[in-house]
Every structure is written in C-alpha cells, then in structure tokens.
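Researcher: Next sequence.
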Amino acid sequence: MNILIWHVHGSWLTAFLQGTHTYLLPVTPDRGPDGLGRARTWDWPDTARELTPAQLRAADIDLVVLQRPHELRLTEEWTGRRPGTDLPAVFVEHNSPDASPTGTRHPLADRDDIPVVHVTHFNRLMWDNGRAPTAVIEHGIPDPGPLYTGELPHAAVVVNDPVRRGRVTGTDLLPDFAEQVPLDVFGMNTDQLAGPATAAGRLRTHDLPQAELHRQMARRRLYLHPVRWTSLGLSLLEAMLLGMPVVALGTTEVREAVPEEAGTVSNRFDVLHAAVRDLAADPGRARRVGEHARAAALARYGLPRFLDDWELMIKEVKR
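Model: Next structure:
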C-alpha cells in the first residue's frame, strides 16, 4: 500500500515508518515545512520515498495520513484528489487543544468522512470532535535499549524552543529545579535560556544530533518533565525506555504513562523538588526506579502494539 504522509513530527513518524507499506513523503526544493522529505537526523527505511508535488500528481496513492488542517488543501492541489472523497484519509491529532482546554472545536469536527486519530486518550477527551469519528492510537517508541548509566547526578530535560514556549513547557520552573539538582537541558534553541542558574552553571544547555541525544540523556541520574500543557511528550517515553527514573508534573496524559513505581508524578512543588533531590542522591534507588520505568514503557508503548493498531486502522479506513 502507498501511503502519503508529510514529515511533521520526526519522532512519531520514525515509529510509523516501521510498518510494512511504502510511504510517500512530499519534498520541495526549499525543504520547508510542507516539503521536508526524508529526515536528516533519524534512520528511516528505504520504503520512505521522497516525491515532489509534480510526481504526486501521477503517483499511485492508496491512503493519505493527514496531520495538519491545511494538508487537506495540499492533497487536493498536489494529487488532484480530495481526501475523504476521492482518496481514503485519516487525520492524526498530535496535540492537545490550544485556545481552550474544553471549548476548542477540532478542524474536522464537521466532517464524518475522515476519522480523527488522537495520540492520547486525554486529547480525545479535551477536543470537541463534533461528528467526526474518533479513535486513539497511543504512541509506539522504537526501543533505544537500556542505555542508562546515571553516572552524572543531574536531571535531564528535553524541550525545543523553551523560551518561545515558556509556561507551556514549564520553562519558568527550571530555575527552581536547578536549585535542587543541576539540570542539563537538551533541545533546539536551548541556548536562548539565560538567568542566574545558567550563569552559575546549575543549568546547562545542549543541542545534540539525534544519534547522540539518547546516550547523553542516559548518563544523567533522572529525567525531569516539567511540561504543563502539551500532548504526551515522546521524550518522556524515550527516557523511560532508556531506563531513566522520571519526575513529572501530573498534567495531561502523564499520570496514565508513568506508574507509581516508575517515578514521581505530582503538581506539588515540594513533592517534585524532594523527588529530584532524592533520586540524584541515591544512584541505587534511581536505577531500580528506572528499571520499572523501562518495563512500563515497553509494556504500553512498545512498537509492535503501535504498528498493529495502525494496521487495523488502515484496514478500517480502506474498506
């Protein structure tokens, strides 16, 4: 089967591309947001093929997997076929609603010909999906392996654009956490972080290639997830698969993803601060908790279950 899909979220797409189909990735000369093509930082299979808009016009396409509302228009313009009418389609909703946690209507809420697949149960609950058929296919993560060493008594944080995203990703909370334990913040544009904790060396930033990121995360004693409002962060699940103990805000889907034995989930500052201090000071306990985290992530977010769920969805849409 030939599946048209845009390169939008690299980590999620890396998992999706492990399926048994051929994946057609739009590419444009500028490799902009609508034509990124194949990833430069992930190892993708040969079944992920780049096609220009002109090539898509003549391509044999069995299904389009949409991820952004304007891809409805792009599909029609570039292929000459209307999603949901001339071409079977499904829309993957990666995000929690932004404008209002309870009053945001989904862009496909007035259509019943394109299923909306949410990546978490929390997201399906919070979006107003209208009459659109909905389903949940939880994340699947390619297993990086139990790389955890925890040799550095630091907390790892992964976030892109922490200054621009601010309170959404809990950037304002980082200085207080840095007073408890040194922080290593990984991600794009983390060098924009500034303040006393950064100047004192309590908060250090790192922009690493994807191939090196997991190994460097795993050297830190624990993973800190200070995110207030976003979909379930894949970096949290990746940290658990590495064998890292986690400390996280109890928001969105986190309580579902992190069982009690895998770390600490709370919205109380005193509990969170004590948790990072305790794990940083006790490498034996940190390793034991991390082993539980890895087992939990493998059980719920393993790649085989994810791919099986998508196979069932694809068959349902293609009927």
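Model: The mean pLDDT is 95. Residues 262 and 292 are 5 Å apart (CA to CA).
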